[in-house]
């Protein structure tokens, strides 16, 4: 709770320190030149109150579940975030799952083939993934696979000819499956392919290098040598002993990577016109939309808190020593 309070305080302070006129940004130059319009707008949103009063008013409304009304869209911030957050969660979850599966395979193989050709190739591939700018890769992928080859759908979450599914989770692929609409599911999954692929490349590069290091440390441990001495098969040794022993540090990095994907996808979302949290945050910042910025900051803070809690719980599941501590 104290952390979330700190998030709101820091976000509120920094936003109000940014030079610019939020009223002109929200109303436009024409309406901002009309004193009566400006006065009505200021009184409606309480912008004539001192900043401490505005902050306390925001906290009071927040305690009742009211995130305020966006100065840019005119809609409740909670409604905007209810649409934007699931869109970002959908590509972030898919990107993390793909990245973890690929990186686990690459990192484990590289560790077992230490300093051999396979290891060198995997390290080069991971370095390329870390080095390529995400926004550049998104532009190249969009131009190549959509404009030139025509094998991937265009921007957005769904083709214009299809109707979004009934909102259950906010994730189009999941909602289409629950609704039994296979056509919509295939179309939504196809729209996910390019943004997920772009986001996954960087995360694969990060996780592969970290998994390789973690697996190398476990491979030299006594219990792994004992498992091999018992005659256990390579697959059982890797899955039951090596990966489980290396899972705790890997889990931490995965949690951080997932949080970063949720809060830092603005460039990829902009290229693919994906209406997610990153796009909403950019629009709110561009319009000096204080309630919108505050809402995004609060959501990101909650996401990191929940991720840390999940990681701590999984620590106890994977390592009995944590449960005994």
UniProtKB/TrEMBL annotation:
Question: Is this entry keyworded Membrane?
Answer: yes
Where in the numbering of this chain does the ABC transmembrane type-1 domain appear?
A: 85-315
Give TM segment ranges: 89-109, 121-142, 188-207, 250-273, 293-318
Cite a single GO MF annotation.
Answer: dipeptide transmembrane transporter activity
Q: Which coarse location class applies to the principal site listed for this UniProt protein?
A: membrane
Instruction: Name the source's superkingdom.
Output: Bacteria
Q: Which Pfam families does the record cross-reference, listed alphabetically? A: BPD_transp_1 (PF00528), BPD_transp_1_N (PF19300)
Q: Which keywords are on file for this protein?
A: Cell membrane, Membrane, Transmembrane, Transmembrane helix, Transport
| InterPro entries given in the database record | BPD_transp_1_N (IPR045621), MetI-like (IPR000515), MetI-like_sf (IPR035906)
Protein's membrane topology: Multi-pass membrane protein
Where in the cell does this protein reside? Answer: Cell membrane
What does the similarity note say? Belongs to the binding-protein-dependent transport system permease family.
* Record-given protein name: Peptide/nickel transport system permease protein
Species whose genome carries this gene: Quadrisphaera granulorum
């Amino acid at each position: 709770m104290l952390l979330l309070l700190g998030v709101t305080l820091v976000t509120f302070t920094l936003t109000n320190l940014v030079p610019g006129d939020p009223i002109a940004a929200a109303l436009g130059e024409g309406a901002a030149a009309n004193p009566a319009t400006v006065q009505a707008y200021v009184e409606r949103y309480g912008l004539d109150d001192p900043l401490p009063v505005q902050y306390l008013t925001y906290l009071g409304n927040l305690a009742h579940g009211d995130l305020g009304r966006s100065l840019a869209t005119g809609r409740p911030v909670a409604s905007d975030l209810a649409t934007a957050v699931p869109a970002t969660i959908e590509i972030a979850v898919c990107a993390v799952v793909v990245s973890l599966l690929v990186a686990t395979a690459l990192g484990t193989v590289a560790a077992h083939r230490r300093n051999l050709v396979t290891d060198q190739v995997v390290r080069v591939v991971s370095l390329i993934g870390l080095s390529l700018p995400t926004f550049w890769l998104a532009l190249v992928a969009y131009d190549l696979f959509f404009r030139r080859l025509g094998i991937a759908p265009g921007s957005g979450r769904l083709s214009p000819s299809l109707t979004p599914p009934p909102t259950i989770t906010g994730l189009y692929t999941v909602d289409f499956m629950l609704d039994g609409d296979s056509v919509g599911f295939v179309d939504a999954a196809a729209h996910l392919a390019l943004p997920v692929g772009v986001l996954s490349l960087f995360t694969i590069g990060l996780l592969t290098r970290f998994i390789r290091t973690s697996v190398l440390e476990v491979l030299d441990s006594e219990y792994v040598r004992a498992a091999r001495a018992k005659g256990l098969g390579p697959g059982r040794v890797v899955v039951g002993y090596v990966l489980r022993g290396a899972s705790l540090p890997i889990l931490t990095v995965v949690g951080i990577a997932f949080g970063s994907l949720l809060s830092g996808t603005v460039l990829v979302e902009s290229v693919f016109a994906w209406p997610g949290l990153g796009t909403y945050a950019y629009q709110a910042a561009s319009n000096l939309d204080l309630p919108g910025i505050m809402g995004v900051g609060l959501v990101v803070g909650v996401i990191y808190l929940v991720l840390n809690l999940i990681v701590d719980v999984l620590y106890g599941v994977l390592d009995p020593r944590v449960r005994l501590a």
